[in-house]
């Protein structure tokens, strides 16, 4: 990939003491292009005692610096009235910073204008933040910003859904059309695409945290992730866009797998997580070539829970196997159409075959009744296996089983003794809140031959630990994930996937997570 513009990553430094700030600035200079020093984070006594320390903070790095003194109502760490803010900016601020982030209300303040000669407006970033959602008067806010002499405009708002990113991208486009430099960010996990793609679309900069625990705004990922995982320096408007649509998606390691594969294959593409609440709106407004509201080269989509079934009504053509399964996990843009596939089904059985070669003679239990369970039941029945569907909702289990000639039972305290394979096709055990949960205990699994968890993060789930205690052979979800991702890669790019690269990337992504 070759970037069509100069990408700037700004690393914010928000520390309580001068010493900690100095150390953080030194580290930020190693990865960032600019450094934002948040003086509102410093202990008030350290600021009030002397601004010589503040000057020293800026003088110790060759990187351009942004000075910010943010009030609490705009996301800052201190309660600051207008008078104290005016006093700071006009009389007490350090003078060696290259940029000054000044909130819109202050930039329009009459007193600030009266002393405007004390401020070099070519250094000013005029900013506005909304931590509730997309402002209803966004156009008015933009217009008010343009009334100031500020060189750069910045608007950040909380995104509730992926489609809120459209608003941020539109702000960048409007600013470019009016010859204004702009930073537009949709905050929160749903807004991640604006952080990764913003610079390639003309944003002045994007923000990247120094560490996972040092983000200064919701959804702010690290500068190293921007550079290493998403390869932001090489993204241009010609870069092809792929991603994962689901809710939630923050646990997914698919971006690590696919972006490593793109890098290995020298494919100009980037794979992003899309936090999607309403799949039809997302497909219509951001994905489908005939209706999308963003000018970008969108090539394909992975689909995960809870959208594998509901997305089917948004597609122009569905592969017969996916249609029979009743779930789509892969979308390919073909001309002006969207085609749907299911790469889960084949990927699911391939790790089983070396362990149980005669699937036609196997007795299999599938726990769950959603899209993943449908793929599991279909693929096992295609191999001639005897399948029983277990679910808490016996009605759902019965309906799924009936579609493929399987039997069904209520999960409850069911025993899996005598089953050759027990598959967890539910999200129970996934990294995060449900991680401690399991669909079956060791007592229930005792007497089963093989336990297979489709959950891959964490690598060892509670279900697998219970199965080990019960004496079962184990298969984790990572094998299936890499196989199905490889098929997605082939469908999107037309070339064979670099399987080893993808497997190594998956293992590398999980390793630090297991050590936390």
Q: What is the number of independent domains? A: 3
Percentage beta strand: 15-25%
Q: What is the strand tally? A: 20
Strand order of the largest sheet: 7-6-5-4-3-2-1-8
Please tell me the overall pLDDT: 92
Structural class: alpha/beta
Give the uncertain stretches in residue-range form: 1-5
So what's the CATH class of the largest domain? Alpha Beta
**Number of helices, counting only DSSP H or I runs of 4 residues or more:** 20
Q: What is the fold named in CATH at topology level of the largest domain?
A: TIM Barrel
- The radius of gyration computed from the alpha-carbon positions, rounded to a whole number of angstroms, is 26 Å
The CATH superfamily title of the largest domain: Aldolase class I
CATH architect. name of the largest domain: Alpha-Beta Barrel
What distance separates the N and C termini?
33 Å
Main sheet characteristics? 8 strands, parallel
Shape: elongated
The percent range for helix content is: 25-40%
Concise account of the structure shown:
With 516 residues, the chain is an alpha/beta fold. It has helices at residues 18-31, 44-49, 52-59, 82-92, 104-107, 110-114, 138-146, 164-177, 192-197, 223-229, 254-265, 279-287, 320-325, 344-349, 371-382, 394-404, 442-445, 462-469, 478-493, 499-514; strands at 9-13, 34-38, 65-68, 99-103, 124-130, 152-158, 181-187, 206-207, 240-246, 269-275, 297-303, 317-318, 330-334, 337-341, 363-367, 386-391, 407-410, 421-424, 450-453, 473-475.
């Amino acid at each position: 990939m070759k970037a069509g513009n100069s990408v700037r990553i700004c690393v914010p430094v928000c520390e309580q003491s001068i010493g900690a700030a100095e150390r953080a600035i030194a580290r930020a200079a190693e990865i960032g292009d600019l450094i934002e020093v948040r003086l509102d984070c410093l202990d008030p006594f350290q600021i009030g005692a002397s601004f010589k320390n503040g000057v020293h903070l800026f003088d110790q790095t060759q990187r351009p610096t942004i000075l910010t003194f943010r009030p609490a109502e705009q996301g800052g760490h201190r309660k600051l009235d207008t008078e104290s803010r005016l006093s700071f900016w006009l009389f007490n601020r350090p003078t060696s910073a290259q940029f000054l982030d000044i909130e819109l209300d202050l930039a329009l303040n009459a007193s600030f204008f009266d002393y405007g000669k004390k401020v070099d407006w070519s250094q000013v970033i005029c900013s506005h933040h909304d931590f509730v959602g997309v402002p209803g008067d966004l156009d008015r806010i933009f217009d008010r910003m343009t009334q100031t002499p500020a060189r750069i405009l910045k608007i950040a708002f909380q995104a509730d859904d992926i489609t809120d990113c459209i608003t941020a991208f539109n702000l960048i486009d409007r600013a470019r059309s009016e010859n204004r430099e702009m930073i537009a960010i949709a905050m929160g996990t749903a807004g991640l695409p604006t952080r990764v793609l913003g610079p390639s679309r003309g944003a002045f900069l994007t923000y990247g945290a120094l560490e996972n625990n040092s983000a200064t705004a919701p959804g702010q990922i690290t500068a190293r992730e921007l550079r290493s995982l998403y390869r932001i320096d090489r993204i241009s408007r010609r870069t092809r866009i792929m991603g994962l649509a689901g809710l939630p998606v923050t646990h997914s390691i698919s971006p690590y797998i696919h972006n490593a594969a793109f890098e290995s294959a020298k494919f100009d593409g980037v794979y992003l997580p899309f936090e999607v609440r309403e799949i039809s709106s997302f497909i219509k407004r951001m994905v489908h070539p005939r209706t999308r509201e963003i000018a970008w080269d969108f090539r394909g989509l992975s689909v995960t829970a809870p959208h594998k079934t509901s997305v089917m009504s948004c597609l122009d053509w569905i592969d017969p196997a996916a249609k029979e399964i009743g779930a789509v996990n892969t979308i390919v843009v073909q001309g002006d159409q969207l085609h749907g596939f299911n790469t889960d089904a084949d990927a699911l059985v391939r790790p089983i075959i070396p362990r149980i070669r005669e699937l036609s003679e196997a007795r299999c239990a599938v726990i769950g009744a959603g899209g993943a369970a449908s793929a599991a039941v279909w693929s096992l029945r295609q191999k001639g296996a005897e399948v029983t569907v277990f679910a808490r909702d016996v009605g759902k289990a019965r309906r799924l089983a009936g579609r493929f000639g399987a039997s069904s039972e209520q999960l409850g305290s069911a025993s899996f003794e005598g089953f050759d394979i027990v598959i967890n096709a539910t999200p129970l055990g996934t990294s995060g809140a449900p991680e401690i949960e399991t669909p079956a205990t060791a007592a229930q699994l005792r007497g089963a031959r093989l336990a297979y968890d489709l959950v891959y993060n964490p690598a060892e789930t509670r279900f697998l630990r219970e199965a080990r205690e019960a004496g079962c052979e184990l298969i984790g979800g990572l094998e299936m994930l890499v196989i199905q991702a490889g098929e997605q890669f082939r469908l999107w790019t037309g070339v064979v996937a670099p399987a080893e690269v993808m497997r190594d990337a998956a293992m590398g992504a999980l390793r630090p997570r297991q050590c936390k």
